[in-house]
Each structure stands twice: as C-alpha cells, then as structure tokens.
C-alpha cells in the first residue's frame, strides 16, 4: 500500500522527478524524463512494481523532514532508541539522470536497511541484475540500464537488492543510482558530494532572485522552486504535474496523465514566473510555445509533449492496480485531441504580459498570431470541451467564450501599439465586442440574474470567477456579484470550492471528486478585487494550511477525509499560492499597481 499522497516529498532536476514517502521509500521515478516509463512505480501498484526504501531497521521514535533552505534537497532526520541520523536525498542538477542518497550519523548508532527494487516499463519488466564490483550493481532490461554505486555492498534477495548497515556519529554512507541507455558504454561516474554541493548552490541561486513579498515569501519561494522543478530544462516545456493517474476520488476512474505541457497550465506558470521577475524562464517557455504551435493553426493542440510532441495517445496499464485500487492507470492523454477555446485567450494574455514585462517581440510571434486569430474568429461560436476537458460532449461553455474574448482583447491591445497594426487592432476589438455581447445575452441563467456554466444550463462553474479576474466585467458588476453568490452557495464544500457539480453527469464520467484547489485561490483573488481583504487572507491561510510538511499541494483536496487527491505536486495549485500572495501583497501596498492573477 503506497503512502497517502500528502506524505510524499518531491525531488527534481528539471528533467524528471521522484516522490519520496515519509517512510523513506522512493515510490515514483521516471527516467530519463518526466514522461518516460517509470523505473519505480510502487505509487500505482506495490513494492514489486519498483521502489527504493532507505530507513532505520529499529523502531523509529521520531522522523522529521524538511528541504534544506531554498533547495530541493530533502533532509530526513531519523531518531531511534540507539541513535540519530539523517538522510539527504536529491536528484543532482546537470546532465546526470540520477538520485543520490547520503546517510550521515548524528549521535549514537543508527541501524539502517535498504531495499532496492529496480523495475522498468512502469513496473512490468524485471531486469537482469549483475555485480560490476563489490560496491556496484547494474540492472538491464531492453533499452534501459540502472547503475548503483555505493559505499555499502548489496546482495540479491527475491529480485530485490538489499543491505543492512549502521552509522555512528560523524560516519556516512553514500548511494548513487544512475540511468543510461543500455546500449552505450558506461558513463563516467560522478562525485556524489560534489553533485550535492552543486545542486544546493543551484537551487539557492535560483531562489535568491525571488523578491520579498512579506509574510508569505517563504511559501512563494517553495512554490516557485516546485514550478521550476516541473520545468523540462532542455526545451523550456512545463509539465502540469510529476505523476499520472493519482485519483480525483479514491477508487474512481478520474485518473489522468499530467506529465505533459498544457498550454493553459504552462501559460499560468509563465505568468507566475514573470510576476516574480523570472524572465529567463518566460523566454524559454515562449520559445517552446512558438516551436510547438508552429504550422497550421487548425492543428494547434491544447497540450504537447515535453519537446512539443503531438502524439499523446492514451492507453492503460492493466498490470498496475492503481493508487489505492483506483483504476485504470492511464498513460498518455486523449484530451490532447480536444477543442478548448480558452487556450487561445490564455496564450494571448501571456504573450501580452511578456511584452509589458520587457521581453522583446519575437519575430515569429506576430506571424503566428496572424494565422491563429482568423482561425479563432472562425470557431469561437462553436462548442468545445472546455477548461475541465469534459468527456460527455461539447457545450457552449461560458468560460471558453470569455477566454475567446480575452484572446481578441489582448490581440487588439498589442496590435494598436503600432501604426501598421491599428486597423487590425480595430478589427480584433470589434470581434471582442461581438463575443462580449453574446456572452452577456446567452451566458446567463433563465432569469438573467447570473452566469452559468454553459449556454442554456442551470449549472454553476468556478471558472466563471475568471469573468472578473480577466477584466471581462468589473468585479462590482451586479451580474458577476450574483454569480459569485451562487458559486459560494452551491459549489462551496467545507470552505473550499468544487470546480463544478459532477453529480449532474454532464462530463461523461462517474460522479465524485475533491475540491479543486486552484478554484479556491481564484475565489481569494476575487475577494482581493472586491476589497474584501480579510476574507481573502482567511481563505489564503486556509489553503496554504493544507500544504504538507514540506510545502507541497496536490490538485485537489477532500475536506471530509482530510486527504489530498489528484496528481502531485500540481502546478496549478502552486500557481495559486504565488499569484494570490502577490495580489494580497499589492492590495496592502497602495503605491503599487493592483493586478489580478487571471
């Protein structure tokens, strides 16, 4: 049985990521990149699907863990009756696809046991393991190879590699596991201590650029580090989460692969980076975007692979039982073929803010915009699957139409800044006005009092909060205020928002899921816009209080069971931590401009 989702910490090297449970087991690791087949897949099955546990063999009296300040290096301090020791876990920055685990004695004598279960292809393939020398192992299956170098010899036991050892005060043992293609000669070993020092320096240098925004600064830096860890450095792509198929309801079917680059999620991550002054990341993402979407605008997808791959075919892994028997386990994502109108608005908004933030115009962006905007003009009246990627058929989602308005509003603003673009900008402005008029006529409920999820619907949707956050309507508009009241009354679950009511059956899936955390951050942002600072701060404190002991959030939360749900850690949730903190800070600093996180 895997640990609870909230019991995991993240390791990362901006190429891939590992999840380490509170009991010292690495239960998830994909190498050499986020979307590669897992070499440890116990998270979605059991220990025979691959894991690496390193923990005291004696009864543990206390276990305390934290990240070393402003890093992604995890420190776990174990206390037993006989002694105390710490384990430092990291994925070294640089070209190594590796995990380093260093055990250091603090006092007394602490006995440890190590259980390394190496598997390939999401836990299906048992490799051929052989000893290279007394302190080194090699595991090979098909195209993959793992090599373990250690200061303690391991021995085989039932397709596991195990050992027991002890450390006294001042003593240490080092374990380094590295991945490489099996057909290549052995890559040169790296010095684990140097790799650790370099990794600490790298993360601290990155975090040091983050501005001080008052009492929430530590939370923001941790979320910033998490978002950076979800960035694939070779291309600039940003994954939505490090995992696949962690369920939105325990035992349910809402299990999706999030190890891809959604334009929506990546764009909001980009805005969070820019809001904190990280324009190198913004520029790398813009380059990724312009490479990925280049070509026929009709072929623009809502998500891509880490390098811009388009084929994200979805299939299931029947040999994995799923997290707490939540099946199926899915690889790939069929939503990549959906139409989601909102992505055009999010991309246009990000490109607009990038220019306002000081990024120079990209020579290709204007040409691509000239192709994409006419296409959006031709399709905005059509239904789509919407922001929540429903699988029950296309609808005229109000949020989608609002974001289509954003696309033309931002495109008009950009075009109007140049003499040659003024006429084009006026055209975009007219299209925006058409969309605005239709939404205000058809996007309201039958009484005309408040907005609804889709034309002709009675349902509510938390994405309607973006009506105010994007500037589609002022937050004080009576129609929006009544929408806000309805959202609070009908979607609030123990102080947190559902994204919509899944019991309506309109999304084509079995009802039931947790509260969607980023929606509650949007609600806090709306409160800021309305000047309800105490409400905003209280909600923000409630949300950030849900972070686990190392500051991480999943996609959703079950307020009844008090458990995290969904893929982990989730970029959307950490974007919420950053942007709402910035909005609260700006509201408390009159000399600075207030801005929404929309």
Q: Can you characterise this structure?
A:
It is a single chain. Strand 22 and strand 23 form a beta hairpin. It is globular and about 75 Å long. The protein is built from 13 helices and 26 strands. It folds into two domains: 5-204, putative glycoside hydrolase family protein from bacillus halodurans (Beta-galactosidase, Chain A, domain 5, Distorted Sandwich), CATH 2.70.98; 209-587, Glycosyltransferase (Alpha/alpha barrel), CATH 1.50.10.10. It has helices at residues 192-207, 217-229, 263-275, 279-292, 342-356, 363-379, 398-415, 422-442, 466-469, 478-491, 517-529, 533-544, 571-587, and strands at residues 8-12, 17-21, 25-30, 38-40, 51-56, 60-67, 74-80, 83-90, 98-117, 128-133, 136-141, 144-150, 155-157, 160-168, 172-181, 231-232, 237-238, 261-262, 303-304, 315-316, 330-331, 492-493, 496-497, 515-516, 556-558, 563-565. By secondary structure, it is α+β, with helices and mostly antiparallel strands. Residues 591-598 have low confidence and may be disordered. The protein has a 15-stranded antiparallel β-sheet that branches. It is 31% helix and 22% strand.
